Amino acid sequence: MDKGKVLIITHSGDNAVVNTVIRHIQAFGGTAIRFDVDRYPIATRLTSVYAGGRWRILLEQGDDRIPLDDLTAVWYRRSYHIGKGLEDLLEREFLPSAVGELRRTLFGMLEGLPCFQMERYSVYRRLDSKEEQLRVAEGCGLRVPATCITNSAKELKAFMTETAGPLVAKMQSSFAIYREGEEHVVFTNEITPEPLETLDQLQFCPMMFQQKLDKALELRITIIGKEIFSFAIDSQKLPASRVDWRKEGAALVNDWQPHPLPDEINRALLQLMDTYCLNYGAIDLILTPEGEYYFLELNAAGEFFWLDERCNHAISRQLAAVLLHRAERRE
């Protein structure tokens, strides 16, 4: 008897952690269906039908016709490059409308599925609000940095005066800028009073500014169901990683170490997950030299592959267990 049927939403360029989770699902006796959305619609077809008093959902991939109306769980991992290749097949004037309908069809189908999901698309959209995250985290008992989200250079200068120290600037969404075919990822950066005179263009694109905290360690906390996987890195050992460790992510990848958290921080993080009813969260914290933990952000689709390798794939195993209800989860 099948012990669970899990749909995995990802893309063909995703890393090996997806296959690692699939192997754990299969080891538990479940079935995993991989849906690479960048192959939709050119190589993949999706159909929803309501007739005879019931819904039927069919995913066609090559010669495979896979019913999805009997799913027991969905893992929404990634949804990159929906409609890839359509730009070569459709006239430019029709492309935005076609991609819009693809997205609405896929996410509408997922939202309506009456099964456990990690997480629903609407939950991801709610978590786009970094401001709400900070409010909720503070309400759960976590420290948060002094923060200003603005498109006003005047208010930013007043905030800098009020905090009386250097700031870091970050965007609220992850993106890259492409110049001459080269990708430039936008990282967190420190700002000082000198360049503020040139920030008039801030009016056209709001940004988040936070007090620059001294760091003893930076932490990535992965929570799956009720299990907490806590790792830390000394990001101050390399000059380029001191403000944002991701700038030297490859150089530091093997330096992450398990980091037990104080009980009160564990309780606050679990309360944060409970508030959003999340079963997966990648949470960034800073530990200051004074021993204080500060919450930065929660990502419901945050990466964990390099940490999974540091703990013998215990993270991916727990993820598979929660998807199959072999471990405690939030409903």
Question: What layout of secondary structure does this protein have?
Answer:
Layout (H helix, E strand, L loop, with lengths): L4 E6 L6 H11 L3 E6 L7 E8 L2 E8 L2 E4 L5 E4 L18 H18 L3 E3 L2 H6 L3 H10 L7 E4 L2 H11 L3 E4 L5 E4 L2 E4 L3 E3 L15 E5 L5 E8 L2 E7 L15 H4 L4 E2 L4 H14 L3 E8 L5 E7 L5 H6 L3 H10 L8
Parallel strand pairs: 1-2, 1-6, 6-7
Antiparallel strand pairs: 3-4, 4-5, 8-13, 9-12, 9-13, 10-11, 14-15, 14-17, 15-16, 17-18
Describe this structure in words.
This protein is of the alpha+beta class and 331 residues long. The protein has helices at residues 17-27, 95-112, 121-126, 130-139, 153-163, 249-252, 263-276, 305-310, 314-323; strands spanning 5-10, 31-36, 44-51, 54-61, 64-67, 73-76, 116-118, 147-150, 167-170, 176-179, 182-185, 189-191, 207-211, 217-224, 227-233, 257-258, 280-287, 293-299. The chain has nine helices and 18 strands. The strands form five sheets. It has a five-stranded antiparallel sheet. The chain has a four-stranded parallel sheet with strand order 2-1-6-7, with helices on one face. Strand 3 (44-51) and strand 4 (54-61) form a beta hairpin. Helix 1 packs across helix 9. The longest helix has 18 residues, at 95-112. The chain starts with a strand and ends in an 8-residue tail after the last helix.
